[in-house]
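Ligand-bound model needed. zinc ion.
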Amino acid sequence: MEIKVIRMSSSFSRYNRQELIRGWDQRRIEKSSVALIGSDLLAGCTSLLLTSLGVGTLEIYDNDLVNIYGKNLFFEADENEPKVEAMERTLKKINPYADISGVNCLPDRHFLAGIIGHPDVIMELTNNTESKKVCLSYGKKLGIPVITGSADDVSGRFYFTRGYDDRSLLLEDYAGKKQGVMPSEILSGVVVENFRKHMAPLSKDEQTIKSMSYNLNSRARFTEAKAGNRANDSDPNVFSKKHATMIGAGALGNFIGIGLALMGVGRLDIIDGDHIEETNLNRQPLFYNSVGQMKAAVLAKRLNKINTDMDARSMARFLDENFEPYFKANKPDIIIDSVDNLSARAIINHYAVEHKIPLVSGGTGPSSGQVMSYIPGKSACLDCRMNVDKEMVEERTVHSCIRDPMPSVVMSNEIVGGIILGEMATTLSPEIYGENVSGIIKYDSSRSNWAGVIGSVEKCDCKRGDVKDWMKEVMEKYKT
Ligand SMILES: [Zn+2]
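Prediction:
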């Protein structure tokens, strides 16, 4: 009896931030069951989300073996071990309250009928047409909804279907291709958001979407598109000489970090002065077993394990006006802003403008988010677009330093993290990935046209000098 009480209070604080969302039904999610087919990145990212969210039963089916040399893994694994078994081991650490099992077997007709049984939803997320055929016909026969999705290096697509017969559901243009982390993060986020809407809608009006596409090769990013035309032939070492500095090691930082490690970024500096709390665990999957430790340090340590060629370093303090020597000495190729407050964002923007460093910035809410890029000489800085300087002064003077806990859930963080990775790729390597989008990429799961690029932004000519002079100047300018 006593054990049960402890368990309940612990899982309560784990899900506390998502239970702050109006209409959230954690019990319903904890009772739900998913059969997930696949062990490449799209299924991998999806398993990470379902586990963090607290889905009751997750069974993962695939027959791939680990090849640590061509690895693409975010979990620890041994050479030649079944991938699903390594996934199961890591996912159980990420959420010990979820019932997770990896079954080493590719579904064929007989297998499905015998083993999968009757989950609430089947997710077929391989690039294998035969497996999709089997799952779609099984789902149709038993009346189980099937989410079918595929991805390549730069694009992906999924369908949410119930007994619908159409050749397009097989996603044949993706057959046999390797899945990349950018589309996998974005797609898996939308897949799981729609699963959540299906299982535990926030209101009776909430509706799932039938289909979604992402394509980094298209300037509209979220148009219905065939498989990306740069898939599989991009240089695997394209980012190995690049140095990124990421400010913010929270939920966005987790997913961006995983992406940077899998994309092979050479060096990553992580700046964050926060420590890990139990209430972070529903959306910051790499922080298992680390409550109380510094986020930046734990994230760097886990990313160095995911990619042993990567040099991830941490600075466990909050970014402020004392980082001038760091930016002067290091001059990273790109700054990634994954913070959750405008004060830090204004300071990040200052350093980017002052040192002419490209900046990709993202923010999230429980069901929405946005991403924008500042490329010196090509687009406008964050102050010209969002008045971050003024907001910083208000945040510093008007609001008290005690902030109420904000509702937060894992899906929007992985989606925005994936979009940031895409814009980072276009910023660092436009010759391979195409041009950066100068507009704002918006995502809102409560709308039917759930994502798109808005506004074309002209460049600005802002110049900045010493950070402390600037800080003094704006504090005086905006003080009320
Ligand atoms: Zn500007």
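The CA atoms of residues 78 and 311 lie 22 Å apart.
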